[in-house]
User: Which sequence fits this backbone?
């Protein structure tokens, strides 16, 4: 699961924690298996309906989460319809702190929700550095984008 996170003015530490919990418990992930396909060589086959990440982990499935900061998600189209307006973006220092809180909340909630029952696997949670340019190369079982405003 690729998670791009952006913080708008008014964002709070509490909201960051709630967002992390939501992303682990909402039915956003579909279990897929890789299969050989005609033409392209391989593909992915969905095996059921969307499930929470925490539930897949409790069933022993390997789940990975990649968290990437993306402050441009808070922009709006300028009044001239030709420019972008970033006035709603949270100040960088506070956004960096919220990013760290969000990632730690993902890890903490994962431990609580998944637990240590027999066969359960905690999700692998990786996060990009807050500053700098980010490049992502991935294979997906079908990109699906959800945008949430917390």
Assistant:
């Amino acid at each position: 699961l690729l998670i791009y996170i952006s913080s708008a003015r008014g964002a709070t530490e509490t909201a960051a924690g709630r967002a992390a919990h939501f992303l682990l418990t909402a039915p956003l992930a579909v279990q897929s298996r890789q299969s050989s396909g005609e033409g392209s060589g391989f593909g992915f086959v969905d095996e059921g309906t969307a499930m929470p990440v925490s539930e897949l982990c409790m069933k022993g499935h390997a789940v990975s989460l990649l968290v990437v900061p993306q402050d441009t998600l808070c922009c709006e189209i300028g009044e001239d319809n030709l420019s972008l307006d970033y006035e709603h973006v949270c100040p960088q220092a506070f956004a960096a702190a919220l990013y760290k809180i969000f990632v730690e909340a993902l890890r903490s909630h994962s431990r609580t929700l998944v637990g240590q029952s027999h066969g359960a696997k905690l999700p692998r949670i990786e996060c990009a550095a807050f500053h700098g340019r980010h490049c992502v190369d991935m294979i997906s079982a079908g990109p699906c984008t959800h945008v949430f405003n917390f």
In short: The first strand starts at residue 2 and ends at 5. The radius of gyration is 17 Å. The mean pLDDT is 82. Residues 55 and 114 are 7 Å apart (CA to CA).
